[in-house]
Amino acid sequence: MQIVRExxxxxxxxxxxxxxxxxxxxxxxxxxxxxxxxxxxxSASSQDDVVVVSVFVNPIQFGENEDYEDYxxxxxxxxxxxxxAGGDLMFCPRVADMYPPGYATFxxxxxxxxxLCGANRPGHFRGVTTVVNKLFNLVEPDRAYFGQKDAQQAxxxxxxAEDLNMNVEVRVGPVIREEDGVALSSRNSYLSPxxxxxxxxxxxxxxxxxxxxxxxxxxxxxxxxxxxxxEVGGEPLAQLEYAEIVNGDDLSSISEVKGNVxxxxxxxxxxxxxxxxxxxxV
Amino acid sequence: MQIVRExxxxxxxxxxxxxxxxxxxxxxxxxxxxxxxxxxxxSASSQDDVVVVSVFVNPIQFGENEDYEDYxxxxxxxxxxxxxAGGDLMFCPRVADMYPPGYATFxxxxxxxxxLCGANRPGHFRGVTTVVNKLFNLVEPDRAYFGQKDAQQAxxxxxxAEDLNMNVEVRVGPVIREEDGVALSSRNSYLSPxxxxxxxxxxxxxxxxxxxxxxxxxxxxxxxxxxxxxEVGGEPLAQLEYAEIVNGDDLSSISEVKGNVxxxxxxxxxxxxxxxxxxxxV
Lengths: 282, 282
Description:
2 copies of one chain form a homodimer.
Chain A: E1 2-4, H1 7-19, E2 24-29, H2 35-47, E3 50-55, H3 75-85, E4 89-91, H4 95-98, E5 105-109, H5 116-120, H6 124-139, E6 143-147, H7 151-163, E7 169-173, H8 193-198, H9 200-214, H10 221-233, E8 238-247, E9 260-269, E10 272-281
Parallel strand pairs in A: 1-4, 2-3, 2-6, 3-4, 6-7
Antiparallel strand pairs in A: 8-9, 9-10
Helix pairs in contact in A: 6-7, 9-10
């Protein structure tokens, strides 16, 4: 698997692939790859001729007091995992090449980015859409693959690509979980063994909410939210940041749990912020 | 010359041209074409195999009290002029196709867009960069052509294309003027004969400022600005909106007239807002 650092080298590879009539699949990541990313690489590999995995810890999507500096990095391991999953090229640009002096352009998606994580991480999605826009322009992928674990991010990027008439199909892969239900996340590496056990509360709360809707036919938004709050409240190491029950297509508020519904939550386990979600079809 | 209204039809034409190995030149306009636009169409025609002229009065770059509704339109005449200048395809999308319900994405260039026209037309450049980004993605041009008359717009679009790693070369053609120095603008059609005479004051003020620098060796920014203010102040029908002497590369403030310098002004003649500028190399 080839590592490419220079933007011009990447463009050269893209040009070559296009000339040969090959389709390109892009899996944008911040590295420290886990099975969630790798399932996307495998999807891409089954669909596209050339699979580009980008590894770039994007500074502009981190808030001032967030974990940009501490975000886990292991390029050696990423390279091996991505290769085994079917990746062809790993694109690892430098921050100074992505955001050179004088850089001034930002892409923003309104509304979709205002609630949920957007309300708690101002500027986060603006950083995400900006870097993904750049990556789309650099890699010119036929398809790009994102994980449903970041549900709001996936919807936001779909919206951006459609609104800006970008020639890319955005595909979203399912949340990948450990045996005990914990959603895979690079940030799980921050957790102590005790915190890792406490992290099960996210999936447990989501599952209880799902059962409340599907089995007990409880369609009142507030009651479902309360169920999540109670479950998270029962875990001493956990602190709920938000629990939202919203329209699964556009994240708008809903008055009852009907149609395509997203249940999403963010929880702090110690100092580690974790998110998870479930899509219900009611 | 072919007229294309549907986004999908445009994509089909672009695909065909690309497949045939043809280069594409794009001249984005709001229509009501004049010699300023046509000079760009001719440049494109001499450089590129397929010349796309887009005609789209972009609602999101107009402020609430601006002239979106009244902006002059004459598609029949535009078509004939663009064809004679070497245009191959006229792209005239509908507003509802460019900004469908739920549209939410905007592209913003910071700093460059804060002064000059940006200070007086909040949201204007955001509307411009957003629509141009969309047009670049739809037309996938090798080169795109803009006029120096809108100096701040040209710099902003260059910045956007570079920052977002768009695969397009942005070219800027010179200000085209009438015999008496008035810069060509679709908005000149708003002027009464008396106002049209008064509009000469923009070029007259710029020329006096230029002579003050080049001939009298006056390098004090305030003195040059005062010269423009006095000249515009002497025209009863004119009201100065701004006169700025700034760095011609990044529009930043300068302490003396040295290097690449942009002198730009906006003037209201009656209710019509006109802009003009000159680049000096000192």
